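[Meeting: bench + compute handoff]

Bench side (C.D.) handed over the final construct sequence. Compute side (W.E.) agreed to return the predicted structure before the next meeting so the bench team could plan truncations. Sequence as handed over:
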Amino acid sequence: METRNLGTSGLQVPVLCLGAMTFGEVDEKSFMHKVGCDEATSFAIMNRALEKGVNFIDTADVYGPDGLSEKIVGRWMQQEQNRDRVIIATKFRFRMGEGANGTGASRYRIVRTVEESLRRLQTDRIDLYQIHMQDADTPEEETLRALDDLVRAGKVLYLGASNYAAYRLTESQWTSRTQHLERFVALQMQYSLIARELEREHVPACTRYGMGLLPWSPLAAGFLSGKYEKSQPPPVGVRLEKWKDRFRAFDNERAWTILDAVRGVATARGATPAMVSLAWLLAKPYVSSVIFGARSLEQLDENLAAADFRLSAEEVATLDAASAFDLGYPYTFMANIQKRW
């Protein structure tokens, strides 16, 4: 499988990354109830992915009760004795404990969250440690200094961010540069043909500061898989059948136009809509790896096929046009004058 540098770091990652949010059966209290898979299936998915060259796995402490996803990934690595064959990414930030300090990105909390993730993953280091969302209540320098200490201690190798505003991301990069701290080399954000808002500010920031973009929800919670039809309810058993509010957000003219364009390219090329949607992201030079989820081997194999699928420049342009969005002010103003912003 093709690999790319993670941003401007020296770390090589496959162009597809296996997201582990669906790993582990959870009860009805979890938003992932009935949309995940059991541990045996999770093991089978990770084994198949590794065989196909996907040695990059992304999880988080909040995926499942009491870090269930991290525990499953950890048990899999121990059982298969393959820790040194995989690149493990995990995230911290959201609530995992009681009280005021049970959430956030303070130094006080970070020194505990990393130890808890290391224990659940049964490993001595985390290859990519990511803050799951910026913390408006904690100074960015405090977070970065705590993370820098983890790198210097060898507990973490690379740093990443997720769900950051562009202004905070720029502040973070400037703080790291001026204070000589380890910086974020990756940015994990929602990005797909449906959700392209990142192109206003975050994509230019990634390019300027050498961060590799790691898109999550590349199929828009499965909407771009082609299973859905206009004016019809979601099929039984799919994720958007349960996440009704999310489906309603996609039930608009723009989203159906995008899906029609994806299906058109897929039909012409003998591919699936999922392959086309993932390949569109991989055609973007600022994307290092695309994070996809799977709760069955069939879903996994369909997504893996995108790694060897290439869109032509004309097909990318067709999809770009179908998914075009309103840049808004001041981006349109700047683009009208310089053709870029």
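W.E. noted at the follow-up: The first strand starts at residue 3 and ends at 5. C.D. will use this when planning the next construct.
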